[in-house]
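Z., the sequence and structure:
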Amino acid sequence: MSESARTADGGEGSERQAVDGPSVAAGSGDAAGRERREQVPATLTDRHDTDRLRIVGAAVLVAVGAAALLQSPGLLLASVVGVGVLAYRQASTVESPSLAVGRSISDPDPEPEDVVTVETTITNVGERTLTDCRFVDRVPAELSVVDGSPRRATMLRPGESCTLTYDVEAQRGAHAFEGVYAAVSDPAGTVANEYALEAPDTIRCSPRAQPIRSTLLRSMTTPYAGRLATDKPGEGLEFHATREYRPGDALRRIDWNQYASTGELATLQFRTERAASVVVIADVRPSSYVRAGSDDPHAADRCVEAASRLFVTLLEEDHRAGIATFGPDYWLAPNAGTDHRHRALSAFGTEPALSPSRPEGTYPVRLRLRWLRRRLPSDAQVILCTPLLDWSSETAVQVLESHGHEVTVVSPDPTGTDTTGERVARLERRNRIRDVHQLGVPVVDWATDESLDIALARAARGWSR
């Protein structure tokens, strides 16, 4: 990594370098390390007069007026110089610059909250000096710059480069760089052309999806072997009951303690363990992209976090897990295995329907429920991750329960208490939680300031009482 130098606009993290040195490659991954000297397309987006021209024009008017009032030849001569500048503006043009852009990303596939270093190099591959140019690397909106600066104002002679070096904090999702903004002024600094320079790159960040200790599954099971205890006696680890000894019962199943105390033979029975078929639904409708505070993650992102961690937990407990959404369409049928796990984790990181960016449009839950009911296995449980901010999420619970799918709700709380509207929203959400509880459906109320593990453990203790 190159040394940083103070930028012309007061920021840190940019430098100028001769093109004879190693140039920065375009993009990331296997493109890193290659030289890039070809010119990239520069699309003119705007042309405008600068503040300098307006200042000169105002100064000329003041000088002419003062010269006439005071009859001062000196002021009149000074105004002539300003008139010359204005005339130069009318005759001058700003030619399209010849620029090459390359970007190096230290880790194009980071984990959430990792710090990623980005170096974007702009090289003047033309034959004229760019006396006044400003560059801004268009950082994806979801990525926060934590160090350095993605902008620079400088002069570039032919063959010279400037490098914008800065660090961003990775967030879940696929984050596309839209290119580089460039503003180039004429030598007098009176007119500026703005350009969009193509420099596509993407940072893809998949969630860690650490398993959760607390289980959320209810009693419904499938014929597959798994770790969910049932009320049926059979093979398993958890004690269920004893019955009379029958000839042929295995010796390891005999209750020798009872035989020692009563002299009667009895056989131990254990709870049968079966695998559940579970679909985890993430509520990613536009209404879920709200947060309690400006620094808090929005509820939709927390729904996706919960869904990813629950999905991994279910697979590790030998259940069959699937993914669905309320909002933009995504469906992954319940299954198991390593390939299924990798497919799901990739979707949690890069699937547009699960994006951290708010989607456009409307997504009626009732239509989505009809679609889901045709695809849900008849014996599937549902874990619904939703902030419970409107009546439609409550309706979804009612419909799924009425069609035989046992539902558990994980509800991140995005409500605040600073304004009257926030307090009303908080009260309405509590009422919905109460109504869902009255349906016999367990709800995990997940506060903003606590981890999902703590919320689940607290809820599990309440259910066991």
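Residues 1-37, 220-234 have pLDDT under 50 and may be disordered. The chain is about 30% helix and 30% strand.

Let me know what you think.
H.
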